[in-house]
Amino acid sequence: MYTFSNRLKIFSVALIVLGLAGWLYSYSASHVTVEEVKTMLAEEASHHGGSHTEEATHAVADTHDKHGETTHAEEGAHHGDAHAEHVMHQIHNRPYAALYVAAFFFMMIALGVLAFYAIQIASQAGWSPVLFRVMEGITAYLLPGALIVLVIAIFAGDHLFVWMNADMVNPDSDKYDALVAGKSGWLNKTGFIIRALIFIGGWSLYRHFARKFSIAQDTAEDNRNFKKSFRIAAGFLVFFIYTESMMSWDWIMSVDPHWFSTLFGWYVFASMFVSGITVIALITLYLKSKGQLEFVNENHLHDVAKFMFAFSIFWTYLWFSQFMLIWYSNIPEEVTYFVTRFADYKLPFLGMVVMNFVFPILMLMNADYKRVPWFVVMAGLVILAGHYIDIFNMIMPATVGDRWFIGIPEISSILLFAGLFIFVVFTALTKAPLLVKRYPFRKESEEFHY
Predict the structure, then answer these.
(1) pLDDT at residue number 33
(2) Within 157-263, where are the H helices?
(3) How far is the C-alpha of 148 from the C-alpha of 245, rounded, in Å?
(4) 264, 270 Cβ separation under 8 angstroms
(5) Helices 332-344 and 373-399, interaxial angle, to 10°?
(6) Cα 157 to chain centroid, rounded
(7) What values do phi and psi take at 431, rounded to 5?
(8) Is this structure's pTM higher than 0.85?
(9) Taking a C-beta distance cutoff of 8 angstroms, is the pair 400, 93 a contact?
(10) Residue 158 gets which letter from DSSP?
(11) How far is CA 301 from the centre of its chain?
(12) Each residue of 312-339: b (16+ CB within 10 Å) or e?
């Protein structure tokens, strides 16, 4: 049985405390007023050609109408007030968005591993049973992680999801949006919560019974539990492919309610799948470094690294397909998604393509490199960072606009959920032996080699 070391436990708790403290600080610091934002914008303007700004201001002021009619100066002041208020809301949104990005990222890792685990069982794979308990440990984070994502979404409200603002579907409001109102049959808070509970409930039920049958098979005298695992895995995969797509529409794509992509569900799936497989590799290598999983050999590592490589290519294919089709058709309602990201997020947007495609190609194409632990760890860390930035690029442009930065809110949120993820996963690993005992393909998996 694996023992959760005190050092790692203290480390995970320290990450949680440090992350929570940092996020609370960033949350309090984000509550700026309109006047403070105006001062900040004036300082920014002065850095981008102050003399020109002053000349323009004096020129507009000189045109002021002495009879009190609406003047260019008044119109400019009104526009300035509206812009300052918009920027203020973006600054207020940033702590919520940073927390949500990190929460979703770690939740999707657990969900990706659950799907990968179900595929191994449904396909009756012979190489992977020695890694099943690692996968089961990672999926323990799914239920708390998904509930946290849901709570953040509800608590943040229109800080993340503008369609949650009741004024957007109220024809009498100056914030009324006909397009959002047209989607209100789907995009409403009640439907959002009900669908989320169905998603989370279905995923968690499968995880519960899969784990139950897996442990029961250890002491069983026949293969009935294995057969049950096979049947529910096949059923879960059908449920998963539908609910994962709808989840991606609700939890990510709806932050941009004017935009949609028919590839988006697959795109998010590719990101969660490769991230989950990467975490399987990293945790496996960590446990081996501590003297555990002695039955896992370099051939198992090679296969996991092959999946990391293959699904990095798959993610790139979907990224390019989505981008190329929208760019080529050049429909205003669609292309605005990429225009925003090229305008304000060019570095993270193009950088994550390098991290998620170019880097894995260079690192993992060679078969020998896939068997070198430190090489796989280095590639894995870059892949995880790249897919965090991928989620960052999905959420931030619609919530904080050009007010983004990788700073205290983002780093604190990562630390918070990384600590929670480590604590939950490694606690789950202590609950059962790290090797399945009576699984039909156990022997084949232990002796797996090329």
Answers:
(1) 83
(2) 178-182, 189-219, 224-251
(3) 19
(4) no
(5) 120
(6) 18
(7) -85, -15
(8) yes
(9) yes
(10) G
(11) 25
(12) bbbbbebbeebbeebeeeeeeebeebbe
Residues lower than pLDDT 70 in the chain: 48-80, 450
Q: Is 93 exposed, middle or buried (0-12, 13-18, 19+ CB in 10 A)?
A: buried
For the segment 254-289, what is each residue's pLDDT rounded down to a tens digit?
Answer: 999 999 888 999 999 999 999 999 999 999 999 999
The number of angstroms, rounded, from the C-alpha of 276 to the middle of its chain's C-alpha atoms is 11
In order, the DSSP letters of 236-262 are: HHHHHHHHHHHHHHHHTGGGSTT---T
Round to whole Å and give the CA distance between 108 and 154. 18
Q: Which of these, 393, 381, 378, 385, lies nearest to 322 by C-alpha position? A: 393
Please give the torsion angle defined by the CA atoms of residues 442, 308, 147 and 216, in that order, rounded to the nearest 10 degrees.
0
* CA–CA separation, 160 and 163 (whole Å): 9
Burial class (CB in 10 A: 0-12, 13-18, 19+), 60: middle
User: What pLDDT is attached to residue 109?
Assistant: 98
Closest CA to 160 of 405, 391, 333: 391
∠ CA 224-227-231, rounded to 5°: 140
Instruction: Measure the CA–CA gap between 409 and 20, rounded to whole angstroms.
Output: 10
Single-letter residue type at 208 = H
Alpha helix (H) residue ranges in 63-184: 72-122, 132-139, 142-156, 178-182
Confidence at residue 72, expressed as pLDDT on a 0 to 100 scale: 55
Measured between alpha carbons, how far is 182 from 81 in angstroms, rounded to an integer?
30
Q: Which residue in this structure is represented by tokens 């990429």?
A: 338
CB-count exposure of residue 126 (10 Å: 0-12, 13-18, 19+): middle
Q: Which amino acid is at 77?
A: A
DSSP-based three-state secondary structure for 264: helix
Q: Give the Cα separation of 103 and 99 in Å (integer).
A: 6
Q: Which amino acid is at 154?
A: I
Are 136 and 214 within 8 A, CB to CB?
yes
Quickly tell me which residue has 């998996």 as its tokens: 445
Rg of the chain taking only CA atoms, in angstroms:
25
